[in-house]
Design goal:
Keywords: Membrane, Transmembrane, Transmembrane helix. The protein is globular and about 65 Å long. It is built from 21 helices and no strands. It is an all-alpha fold and 434 residues long. The protein has one domain.
């Protein structure tokens, strides 16, 4: 059964890569659906709920307008292929010695330098690895805790990893948050969005310096101080190459942003495979039998959002006649909706799909940056400030720190400050551009 599920995941990935050919959208959506159904017994509650709602959306579309199904299946196939490509890239890169050296080097220096190194380093590693960055860096924090015990240093390291990963949905060109936002808000440009979100992410991480525990500066081991620049340069060059591929494909060749990310990530995967063959090694194919949860959430949410946005668009004729003052108010509320929903255990993909699918259709096009900024910043703060986020649960398993403590209590003041700033900025952008 696991072999069949893994094969279905690879079929869905190939269908996403070959999306320009006829019939690939249906093939990809079908493969995703079968992979989810076969893995139903091993899935968590939220992915099951999302996929069941997607089934209801399918029934609704059949009764209302079957033409909605075609676009929804295409959206489902593209975003499912995206998450599979990113996961495959993460698995390939996690095997490299460069990544292990980089992760170990993040622990060097005095307390302030160590916090900044861990937070910004995790953010950088998160660009291609997504949740893999938490597993790699977090496992090193867990080893420190097991060897040295609980201490302010290990608690601050946990804060840094959570916050560093948490801002990656806000600024990473490869993150599902940025891709989903740009997919649902096609009038918003990627460079326009990142121009505002990258500085916000940097400031948010720096503000985390205020909310740390005091610790005694201590000397680090010599093994940590001997890591050279070569691993960083190689890893940074890979990230730049992937991002450059994304921008080239999406801007010069006018491919959809999700499709561009998928192709760029797979280019890096194929390149790594060719390099391994040239060195006469043949690593086994990554087993993707355990991706049912991710496919259910991403694929199901994409299908739901497409059906909802298509239905809403069909109901709107001309100007929706919304008062001008209401747009900035809605923009200010968007980050808080993400956070409150995250506290209730709702995945940000679900919130983003519904918010973008409904609001993206009626939002004034010249002020889309206000909505897009609110969506990705709310997503990021939810990722490090709520206890049900996947990275918080991973860190709980690796370090033993309860997710409620590490993600919510330790970060509450930073989360509230970030949400307030994000709301004001989103509303301000909307007011200025209306």
């Amino acid at each position: 059964m696991q072999l069949i599920r893994s094969a279905l995941a690879y079929i869905a990935l190939m269908a996403a890569i070959l999306a320009l050919f006829p019939g690939m959208a249906g093939l990809g959506a079908g493969a995703v659906s079968l992979a989810v159904i076969l893995g139903w017994q091993d899935m968590r509650r939220v992915p099951r709920a999302v996929f069941l709602v997607a089934g209801l959306a399918l029934v609704f579309a059949l009764g209302r307008d079957p033409a909605l199904i075609s676009s929804a299946a295409g959206n489902m196939s593209r975003l499912a292929g995206l998450i599979l490509a990113v996961m495959l890239l993460s698995s390939v890169l996690s095997r490299t010695s460069d990544l292990q050296q980089i992760s170990a080097s993040l622990f060097g220096g005095k307390p302030v330098a160590r916090y900044l190194s861990l937070s910004f380093g995790t953010s950088l590693v998160s660009i291609p690895l997504n949740f893999g960055s938490v597993a790699v860096v977090g496992s090193l924090v867990g080893e420190r805790m097991r060897s040295s015990g609980d201490s302010p240093a290990t608690r601050n390291a946990t804060r840094a990893v959570l916050r560093g990963f948490g801002v990656s949905p806000t600024f990473s060109p490869l993150s599902i948050s940025v891709v989903l936002t740009l997919t649902l808000l096609p009038g918003l440009g990627s460079l326009q969005l990142l121009l505002f979100t990258v500085p916000f992410s940097v400031v948010l991480v720096l503000c985390g310096l205020i909310w740390r525990e005091p610790e005694i500066a201590q000397e680090t081991g010599s093994s940590e101080s001997k890591v050279g620049l070569a691993p960083w340069l190689r890893f940074g060059a890979l990230i730049l190459a992937i991002c450059a591929g994304v921008f080239l494909l999406s801007h010069r060749y006018q491919l959809s942003y999700a499709y561009a990310v998928t192709l760029s990530c797979m280019g890096a995967v194929f390149g790594a495979r060719l390099l391994a063959w040239s060195r006469k090694t043949n690593p086994p194919l990554v087993n993707m039998s355990n991706v049912s949860n991710e496919l259910a959430i991403v694929g199901g949410s994409a299908f739901i959002g497409s059906v909802i946005s298509g239905a809403v668009l069909g109901q709107i004729s001309g100007d929706p006649n919304v008062p001008t003052w209401l747009w900035p108010v809605i923009a200010a509320c968007v980050p808080w909706v993400y956070f409150v929903a995250g506290l209730a255990g709702v995945n940000p993909i679900v919130v983003g799909t519904l918010a973008g699918g409904v609001l993206g259709v009626i939002w004034p096009e010249n002020a889309l940056i206000g909505l897009g900024f609110g969506m990705v910043t709310g997503w990021g703060i939810t990722a490090f400030g709520t206890p049900f986020a996947a990275n918080a649960l991973i860190m709980e398993r690796l370090t033993g720190y309860r997710a409620m403590d590490a993600s919510f209590r330790w970060n509450l003041r930073l989360s509230l400050g970030g949400l307030t700033a994000a709301s004001l900025l989103a509303a301000g952008m909307t007011v200025m551009l209306l």
